[in-house]
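To whoever is covering the structure queue this week,

Two jobs came back overnight. Logging them here so there's a record in the thread.

Job A:
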Amino acid sequence: MSEIDWNVELRKIEREYDGLPPEPSANALRARRAAELRERQEAAERIALVGGWARLVLVTTLAVALYWWPHARGCGLDLAAFLGAEAMVAVGGLWVAVFTWRHRLATGHTLALVLLIAGLALVAVQTLPRLGYATFAGVPADGWLCAAGSARGAGVTPPATP
């Protein structure tokens, strides 16, 4: 018997009759799949690069914006809000560091670690003097809570002087 698969041959003839190109070979299919996979990987790398730098810019902007903090930060809830914002710089630095580590972005990872250390330093500058461990120029060694008679206290207004 002949070893010709007439179904396959008939499909080839039908494709040729319909004006279609011949079916690609196994090697051509494999090469096309490999090229598509490479394109998807390159697109994912570009997206990760843009995402990493966007996160880095976002956290850096927060760190720089702390310089123009609009409220007092000496004690009480104002201090808690300021410490929370400074802690978010450290958390954001950690967030960016994890992202850049997973996506193998070396420069972004290095800068994220710098942001993480800067965020921890910002928190330390506010907390260490209040704990009695260190003093920094320009940072008062006040307590955590405002004085009971101060205007910043819990809604207490100072008495009027005659």
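Job B:
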Amino acid sequence: MQDKHAEQILEFAVEHIDKDIFINCDAGLSRSPGVLVALEQIFNGRDLSYEHRFHNKFVKNKIRDVWFKRIWFRKNGDVE
């Protein structure tokens, strides 16, 4: 996963914030839970990492890092 992939996920989530989002991948065992855990932390403040112990931590961290980098740039008036 690259920053651009995390951006696409975040843009989709923001566009559909008022709807339920179904997250899946081929096996649904690692990447999907990683996306779920990240989005729940960002948008709902819930930490589901214990419920989804085997989530892909790289995916979760990439999405969170991109989101918080976005927030930091906006807050500080910087342009990426």
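Note for Job B: Helices lie at 3-15, 31-44, 57-75.

Please reply-all if you pick these up so we don't duplicate work.
Q.
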